[in-house]
Amino acid sequence: MDAWQLFVPAIAILIPLLRLILFRRGDDGRRGRLPPGPPAVPLLGSTVWLTNSLYDAEPVVKRLMSRHGPVVSLRFGSQLLVFVADRRLAHAALVESGASLADRPSQAASARLVGEGDTMISRASYGPVWRLLRRNLVADTLHPSRAHLFAPVRARVRRLLVDRLREEHGEAEAAPRAVVETFQYAMFCLLVLMCFGEQLDEDAVRAIGAAERDTMLYMSSEMGVFNFFPAITRHLFRGRLQKAHALRRRKEELFVPLINSRREYKKNGGEPKKETTTFTHSYVDNLLDINLPEDGNRALTDDELVMLCSEFLVAGTDSTSAALQWIMAELVRNPSIQSKLYEEIKSKTGGGGQHEVSEEDVHDMPYLKAVVLEGLRKHPPAHMLLPHKAAEDMDVGGYLIPKGTIVNFMVAEMGRDEKEWEKPMEFMPERFLPGGDGEGVDVTSSKGIRMMPFGVGRRICPGLGIAMLHLEYFVANMVREFEWKEVAGDEVDFAEKREFNTVMAKPLRVRLVPRSTLE
To answer: Where does heme bind (predicted)?
Structure first.
């Protein structure tokens, strides 16, 4: 029997009374005002965890909401978790009272044990370090004027993506293959170049991708045990910690030479040693210019640089490739919508031998934007935002949210709410055109939330603008190059599966018919 299976009952026997006392004191006589939820027991938390995993909390929460309404609570150990699915309450909490929910929960013990600090934009506490890191990213690397400089990079990746799709799917006799791996590789190539300013060969790109994925998989599947009594479990499961440290060292071995190369590049006044592979700007360049005034005005350490680069790569790859797969699946299932989009592409780009849809072209394609928005509404890559932490006692929908509570927002539920959207489970891009029920929707949701695939408020995704550009640009070019058709006997299935994002449980397989010329 696994040592952990013996350990938990032993602890449950030794300290239930202490936990019970803490539970009673924690509500401070205000239990009646907390959001409704299932009963809780000492040590474990809510009784639903007896038969469910926190990793699969979404269906549990949805069942509770069908019974109690759009605000419910659960306990995990002694931590109170609140889930909100009402768009108006979400706007009041995240926009109107933004500072109260701008913080993040503390890093899990498992992350701290392997040296993952809080110097990351997505995880940092709300304060000066977070503001500095976010401002650096938004005002420079992702600013529209700077993003435009990466147009040659996107064009290069577009050619790579189209060539790979043609090789793998363009032959009539070829067996259909899942396209998601091609999407992931292409998007990762793009983010690697934007991050490090260097065009790497395929082996190097795949090595970085494997290091990222191996680390994420191991942390999510094997390290959760350290979040319970880490002072003890770190000794019981030393082997797991050693493996996690080895995976982290592997990332450092791959990243640090690339970071040092950019240091040399900056010292040389921005003169590339290899003109054909070195790009004039990168995310690392900006990071190397940062000094932390709250910590003696020091520069970022190599460990911090590695974490920030890792965050940049993962955030920009997984969500974009997942969204691309969902959107293209809908276009395969709905050929009339795909045809209408292709007609718009032809009308805006014409014939004349043009080999791609340019970034300037996509700015003048309203139906393309509607297709992308509808994909994000119906299939948001993340069904819940990264968790927020209440900085003070606050009111949400008449319920008390005590200071320190972790608050989660149900993105998919808001975008699929039948009270707000006509036929929400149908794919209808026209809803975002004039006269539709989504006309004028602002994905930043500053004035009101209808859908929030990028979050809202002070913690809104800093990559919103570049993500929309990438989705529109690559969707347009894939539709311009190929007619995407369903495979007989291997039809599109919209069943969902939770990985790092919500992905297709049955990956999309297609038959691609090259469009030889634009008519």
So the answer is: 461
